[in-house]
Design brief:
Its cofactor is Mg(2+). With 147 residues, the protein is α+β, with helices and mostly antiparallel strands. The chain has helices at residues 3-6, 20-30, 57-60, 82-89, 111-119, and strands spanning 13-14, 34-39, 42-48, 96-101, 104-110. The chain has one domain: CBS-domain.
Length: 147
């Protein structure tokens, strides 16, 4: 499986001069987790909703995205194996990987997408997962439940 198979294609790019409050409102209205900050040469970094301080309007007052941009961003490509992208994100605070084709931003891969894919992966073998907390079991590939 490749990054392009599960990446989010609806990524918004913004200029570093965008007021942080405007960016926060746009993120909230559109359900975005991040903006890719771009200039004429391509992506220069990202700004996440968490970086903007959640509901902390004073944090954003009189500031632009350029004040929050994280430039030490790892990126990936659409043809990268998902397992490799997951390994890159593992243990890092960066919760997403911008996906570039050349210098063009074509998507974003988030940890949430990786977890969603993992949660819906077919079970291997005969055994199914049994939750230790609630003792609910999921059926194996043949529909059998394990008790």
């Amino acid at each position: 499986m490749r990054v392009e198979d599960i990446m989010e294609r609806a990524v918004e790019a913004a200029d570093a001069s965008m007021p942080a409050g405007v960016a926060w409102d746009r993120m909230r209205r559109r359900g975005l987790r991040m903006f890719a900050i771009v200039d004429r040469t391509g992506i220069v970094g990202i700004v996440t909703r968490d970086q903007l301080g959640g509901h902390g309007a004073p944090t954003r007052r009189d500031r632009t995205l350029g004040d929050f941009v994280r430039t030490d961003v790892l990126t990936t490509t659409p043809d990268c194996p998902v397992t490799h992208a997951a390994a890159v994100l593992s243990g890092r605070t960066q919760g997403c990987l911008p996906v570039l084709r050349g210098t063009q931003l074509v998507g974003v891969l988030t940890i949430a997408q990786l977890l969603e894919k993992l949660a819906h992966a077919p079970h291997m073998g005969r055994a199914a997962h049994v939750c230790g907390a609630c003792r609910e079991s999921e059926p194996d590939q043949k529909g059998h439940r394990v008790s």
